[in-house]
Amino acid sequence: MLLLVNVVILTIDYIEKAEDLGGKNNGGIPVPAKVIFIDYYLNLIPYFIGILTPVFVFLAVIYFTSRLSARTEIIAMLSSGISFYRFTVPYLICAGLIAGMSFYLNGWIIPNATQKRIEVEYRWLKPKVNYQAKNLHRKLNSDSYIYIEGYSSENQRADRLTIDRIQQGKVTYRLISDVAIWNNEKKEWSILNIQERFIQYDKDNHVKEQFRKRQKLDTNLKFTPDDFIYKELKEAGMNMKELKEFIETETQRGSGELHKFKVEWYQRFAIPFATFILVIIGVSLSSRKTRGGIGLKIGLGLLITFLYILAFQFTTSLSRNGQVPIWLSVWLPNFIFGGVAAILYIKAKQ
């Protein structure tokens, strides 16, 4: 069933992207078949599997348990002395295995596949756009900082930049330049029209300065043009180690555009854990024989799944303006539906 749904989704995606795949955004040059089916769609399958797995596990639990309930097999097991907790243990064991696989899938397999898919999108499918940014601040290392007044991706040019070295709370070096241009062949920056200022302090805190002018300086500055651009889904293309290191590095640099990266980090823990909650809700809802049969229970399961996804979207948006901590906004649906699962489980036991 999961495979069939994937085929349907991929077919719809292919139809929607037919013009782009035909070369609409690439000067009329069609995308090669290998790129379409191997580099793009083969790497798109893990993404949909990761999204759909909790939903199908939930529906499978409802369907299987409802069948047992309809045949009164659950009543027979409970009447023989098996507790409801003992009855749910196999479900929880399976939930743990699936949650573990989901964590590994979302943490390593899907990011690697997504990275390859993103490269195809930006090489062949996305229209070429000029990314511009203003007033960028970066931390280069433990004591050096850079400020860039403006940046344009069209010519990979940074205008009016300043580099400060701060030691013991004092500025000891300052570089001011009109422009820095990225050299794609050498993979380094060419800084032009440079004014350097060397600052020394004596015991009485008196300042001694030296000035120097230079026409050009080639250096890597420990970042590339790609570091300026927070491309769509860039966070989804990082595995757990890369995502953690990226957040730590950008935090040290003073970046203020880390919201979606932190959301991605917490979601990779929260979504696998949701498997336990959905399994408990599924067992609790479908363990009793009720009017309406399996169809009603599956319909109710789809409604709960929709509300769960809606809650994830809503609570995550609360953290964008600082109303709620990011970790809480991501985990809040689990806390809410975890409470619902506990209530339903207690009622089911009775």
Topology:
Blueprint: H1 2-16, H2 18-21, H3 33-70, H4 73-79, H5 84-125, E1 132-139, E2 144-152, E3 157-167, E4 170-183, E5 188-201, E6 207-219, H6 240-253, H7 259-286, H8 293-318, H9 326-349
Antiparallel strand pairs: 1-2, 2-3, 3-4, 4-5, 5-6
Q: Which class of secondary structure composition applies to the elements?
A: alpha+beta
What is the number of beta strands? 6
Radius of gyration equals 28 Å
Strand residue content: 15-25%
Overall residue-averaged pLDDT value: 87
Dominant shape: elongated
Gap between N and C termini: 34 Å
Strand order in space, largest sheet: 1-2-3-4-5-6
Query: H/E element string?
Result: HHHHHEEEEEEHHHH
Helix content: 55-70%
Q: Helical element count? A: 9
Number of domains: 2
Give the low-pLDDT segments. none
Task: Let me know the largest β-sheet.
Answer: 6 strands, antiparallel
Tell me what the structure shows.
With 350 residues, this protein is α+β, with helices and mostly antiparallel strands. Helices cover 57% and strands 20% of the residues. The protein folds into two domains: 153 residues, no CATH class; 97 residues, SH3 type barrels. The radius of gyration is 28 Å and the shape is elongated. The relative contact order is 0.11.
